[in-house]
Design brief:
- The complex is a heterodimer of chains A (199) and B (730).
- In chain A, strands 6-1-8-7-9 form a five-stranded mixed sheet.
- Chain A is built from six helices and nine strands, in the order E-H-E-E-H-H-E-E-H-H-E-H-E-E-E.
- With 199 residues, chain A is α/β, with parallel strands linked by helices.
- Chain A starts with a strand and ends in a 19-residue tail after the last strand.
- Chain B folds into four domains: 8-87, Phosphorylase Kinase, domain 1 (2-Layer Sandwich); 114-169 and 369-563, Rossmann fold; 172-360, Dimethylsulfoxide Reductase, domain 2 (3-Layer(aba) Sandwich), CATH 3.40.228.10; 610-722, Barwin-like endoglucanases (Beta Barrel).
- Chain B starts with 7 loop residues before the first helix and ends in an 8-residue tail after the last strand.
- The mean pLDDT of chain B is 96.
- The chains are: A alpha/beta (199), B alpha/beta (730).
- Chain A binds chain B through residues 11-12, 14-18, 20-22, 24-25, 27, 30-31, 42-48, 125, 127, 130-135, 148-150, and chain B through 21-22, 27-28, 31, 63-64, 66, 68, 75-79, 81-83, 207-208, 211-212, 214-215, 218-219, 221-222, 224, 234-240, 618-619, 632-633, 636, 646, 656, 674-678.
Chain lengths: 199, 730
């Protein structure tokens, strides 16, 4: 939808899993949920987190696909694998730094969040972000997020010297620049790229 | 008499619960077909009554589409709302009336089933007197149906015994608000929550039991509001609490009295407001004088410093809201608990303004509307008292009967079951209620049901309770009959009929009117459509507290809901109460109620040293009659687990997944353990949605609040022991 972006804020998540259930109901998913959901450590904490695909600007999944089955559309959405092309090799499943793609054995195909492409391309909001009772998943205008939230949207992530920018934003504490949790991102080894926070 | 006519296995095989995962026609077959229409209506489950659009094709609900324009939930839905549409075409749906025989249930014609029902009810009344039959209603019924049940009991049957499952919901809050404020309603629209500066939730598991309210609370936090959460468990919203008060089950009153104590002690009261708009403050102040934070800490397990902090945050704010739900209300002092919340709001002048107020979070779908128009044992339409002569005259006039023929107040829900057990009540007609799962002390309930000489049930699935019936009349789902409900904010909303009942199932209101006809009282039940019932209800409520006279279906659609009271057709409705400082008592003043501490009705001791509390999970609803049949919801939380803190678990050598036997003074059940740090170490928790061997309500006790008659579900005493795994000896 024009002017809308997708924001993920795990600190708002209440673990209700409405997103998983609603994803199944989307007309293109039909009974298969593309949401990645976890209770972080239920014994220790109530914390839970729901994620959609981050829709990378330069998607690792597509880079590693030997069958050229994963396409990024003009509007930045990275689609699920194309059924006629996907060979079910799981390269993308292993390569995605966020752990998003899943091989669905029933369909012998990788499937992942396509941001309800049938909905978003027709001006509707994705199912998960529409129903989410805590708005941990939100699909709204950037001005709205800036005006209403305490946290700040971030879309640059580091994975051991791999810098990834994404279409989907993570809500992070207001002083966060880029998200990097791997010590390698801070470690100087000569010519490697480092997270800005390393300086 | 009324034991199930066949074994549980046979019943389960035929009537379920079976799990339905797929929309009518399957995921692939229907996926290419567009729905014929989108019906704007509301979720059938909890008191949030979220707006939703149902996809309809070939007289079947095939899915849903969010309804983003509806202002309350703006498209948001919990998993139950997302999957609710899977009930309509469910294999367990009752498509014909059922009659009990020695060989089990057999299907019957409507004429036969209705004649039999009317005949048996009359027979019992002639033999044992009018009050020997009772009626159970439910708070998932539309307001039209609720109104009809009250009229049916009093006019068609002439019994004084009608009550409903809302007795297990928010009646403690209702009694407290009626007494203190003169009206039984949450005083604020939900938009006020997002506008508050201090929010305290007590005994309200918002994230799981009122999920979309979470967004209102998070929006307040985004603005900088402070969140205080009081609960024996670290519930999902507690993760963002600025102050968490881990109150021991059954001791909320001590905590609240100490908060009020500090507010008074430290001069945080709003004297001007108290003097101008309330009575009874001095006596209430006296009643909390001895409840200093130290004493309350010893009783409640909440640190004195935390109590001081909560009191100061609330007392120093002009925009404080206190939200409470079943965790505060399900106690033998549930009314006092709620009166204490109201007293804190009144003492600090936090009421009648945006972002300020005491707020009950009503739980059941039509928990608000279902209690306003005569389904309660002591009330007439419009939230009128059944003992008020003027109210009796008004309603009798609308009904075309003599006030003298209107029975007086009868027993409440648990008292009706007690009277059945005692042999005083012989016959029962039950709709929208599954007492075998939802009433406390389930073994007692089963014994009582087996004593009934006649038991008739109207339901769309064969619930555990319905399996004890002599006749089951196949009724309708919410989406199969038009009507209104009132959501948690007292916003009256329009339930649209999306489809006809399947097979030979019929609309509930038709069934009731046909029964009235067969009881020889048809002239009082001439209704062909719910709209005609609503027109009469408008007049019956006119001039009452819950005045619906100015509400029409069309006005609801136009305004996206109308908040009652709405006394005239040109009145916009009343989203926020008390804005003019006037309360609903004759003198316009709110009442401070004096508070007195009592122990719970099932205290812990050396033999039963652990507190047991019960509640809900997000993927199941109430007794599970509906949600235990929906595959995706059952998969999310398939069976009840015992939540237990590692410190208590270690003492008994219990790990996650181990079977644990929980024994109370009533009974024992065995459940797998779920070892979590998110519960007090002296307390265990079991969700109550399941029947039989897994029923938490086998353990709970029948102690009632003396005024609201709500059972004390939220605190029982128990002991736990690790059970042997199957195949490991005894």
């Amino acid at each position: 939808m024009f002017g809308m972006e997708f924001y993920v804020d795990p600190s708002r998540c209440i673990g209700c899993q409405s997103c998983l259930k609603a994803c199944e109901e989307c007309d293109t998913h039909r009974g298969v949920s593309m949401i990645n959901f976890d209770f972080v450590d239920r014994k220790e904490t109530i914390a839970s987190a729901a994620y959609v695909c981050w829709h990378c600007d330069d998607p690792t999944c597509a880079q590693v696909c030997p069958a050229d089955a994963i396409k990024k559309y003009e509007d930045g959405i990275v689609g699920s694998s194309l059924k006629p092309r996907c060979i079910g090799c799981s390269n993308c499943v292993l390569a995605c730094p966020f752990g998003i793609p899943k091989l669905v054995p029933e369909y012998e195909q990788m499937m992942k969040c396509d941001m309800c492409y049938d909905r978003t391309s027709a001006g509707k909001r994705p199912m998960c972000a529409t129903v989410c009772p805590s708005q941990a998943l939100a699909y709204v205008a950037p001005e709205t997020i800036a005006a209403t939230r305490r946290e700040k949207p971030v879309n640059t992530f580091w994975f051991g010297n791999q810098r990834i920018t994404t279409k989907v934003y993570m809500m992070a504490p207001a002083n966060t620049g880029e998200i990097a949790i791997d010590v390698a991102d801070y470690t100087w080894e000569g010519e490697n790229e480092l997270v800005p926070q390393a300086f | 008499m009324a034991k199930p006519p066949s074994s549980q296995d046979e019943l389960t095989k035929r009537f379920g619960p079976h799990l339905n995962y797929n929309p009518p026609g399957g995921w692939q077959g229907e996926s290419d077909k567009q729905s014929e229409m989108l019906v704007k209506t509301h979720c059938c489950f909890c008191g949030q009554q979220c707006g939703i659009q149902l996809k309809v094709r070939d007289n079947r609900v095939t899915g849903f589409e969010p309804w983003e324009e509806f202002p309350f939930n703006r498209g948001m839905l919990c998993p139950k709302g997302v999957k609710r549409y899977l009930q309509g075409n469910h294999p367990d749906r009752l498509l014909d009336p059922l009659l009990r025989t020695d060989e089990g249930f057999r299907t019957a014609t409507w004429d036969h089933a209705l004649d039999f029902t009317a005949h048996r009810l009359r027979e019992l009344q002639e033999k044992y007197g009018r009050d020997s039959v009772a009626v159970y209603g439910g708070a998932s019924l539309t307001t039209e149906k609720s109104y009809l049940m009250g009229k049916f009991a009093r006019v068609a049957l002439g019994t004084r015994h009608i009550d409903y499952n809302g007795r297990l919901c928010m009646v403690s809050a209702g009694t407290a608000y009626k007494g203190a404020l003169g009206v039984d309603r949450a005083p604020n629209p939900w938009s006020d929550i997002a506008a508050a500066d201090v929010l305290m939730t007590i005994g309200a598991n918002i994230g799981e039991c009122a999920p979309i309210t979470t967004d209102y609370i998070w929006r307040a936090r985004d603005r900088g509001a402070k969140l205080i959460v009081a609960d024996p468990r670290f519930t999902p919203i507690a993760r963002n609490a600025d102050l968490f008060l881990p109150v021991r089950p059954g001791t909320d009153l001590a905590l609240l009295m100490a908060i009020l104590h500090v507010i008074i002690r430290d001069g945080l009261t709003d004297r001007e407001f108290i003097d101008a708009h309330t009575t009874g403050f001095e006596k209430t102040a006296e009643s909390v004088e001895a409840w200093n934070p130290r004493r309350a800490a010893e009783v409640s397990g909440v640190a004195p410093e935390a109590i001081e902090k909560a009191a100061h945050w609330i007392g120093e704010s002009r925009r404080a809201m206190l939200l409470h739900a079943r965790g505060l209300e399900h106690h033998s002092k549930g009314v006092e608990n709620c009166e204490a919340v109201v007293a804190i709001a009144l003492a600090t002048g936090n009421i009648g303004r945006e972002g300020a107020g005491p707020v009950m979070v009503t739980g059941q779908g039509n928990g608000q509307g279902g209690r306003e128009h005569g389904q309660k044992c002591d009330q007439l339409p419009g939230q009128r008292s059944l003992t008020d002569p003027a109210a009796r005259r008004h309603v009798a006039g609308v009904w075309g009967i003599s006030p003298d023929d209107l029975p007086g107040p009868g027993y409440t829900a648990v008292e009706i079951m007690n009277a059945i057990h005692a042999g005083e009540i012989k016959g029962l007609l039950c709709v929208c209620f599954n007492p075998l799962v939802s009433l406390p002390d389930a073994n007692f309930t089963r014994e009582a049901l087996d004593k009934l000489e006649f038991f008739g049930v109207i339901d769309f699935f064969l619930s555990e309770t319905a399996s004890h019936a002599d006749v089951v009349l196949a009724g309708s789902l919410q989406e199969e009959e038009e009507g209104v409900t009132a959501n948690v904010e007292a916003r009256v909303i329009h339930i649209q009929k999306a489809v006809d009942p399947p097979g030979n199932a019929r609309r509930d209101s038709e069934i009731i009117c046909d029964l009235a006809q067969r009881l020889g009282r048809g002239q009082y039940f001439p209704f062909r459509e719910p709209r005609e019932i609503f027109e009469e209800l408008r007049r019956a409520s006119q001039g009452g507290i819950a005045d619906y006279y100015g509400i029409t279906y069309e006005k609801i659609d136009r305004q996206m809901g109308v908040f009652w009271p709405c006394p005239t057709l040109d009145h916009p409705g009343t989203p926020r109460l008390f804005e003019d400082g006037r309360f609903f008592h004759a003198d316009g003043k709110a009442r401070f109620m004096s508070l007195a501490w009592r122990e719970s009705g099932d205290p812990v001791d050396a033999e039963f040293p652990v507190y047991l509390t019960t509640g809900r999970v997000v993927s199941q609803y109430l007794s599970g009659t509906q949600t235990r049949r929906i595959g995706g919801l059952v998969d999310q939380y398939p069976e009840p687990k015992l939540e237990i803190h590692p410190r208590l678990a270690e003492q008994h050598g219990i790990n996650t997944g181990d079977p644990v036997t929980v024994t109370s003074r009533r009974s024992a059940i065995t459940l797998p353990a779920m070892v979590v740090r998110t519960i007090r170490p002296d307390t265990v928790f079991i969700p109550y949605h399941w029947p039989g061997e897994r029923s938490a309500n086998r353990l709970t006790h029948r102690t009632l609040d003396p005024r609201s008659k709500i059972p004390e579900f939220k605190v029982s005493a128990c002991r736990i022991e690790k059970a042997a795994r199957a195949g490991e000896g005894s």
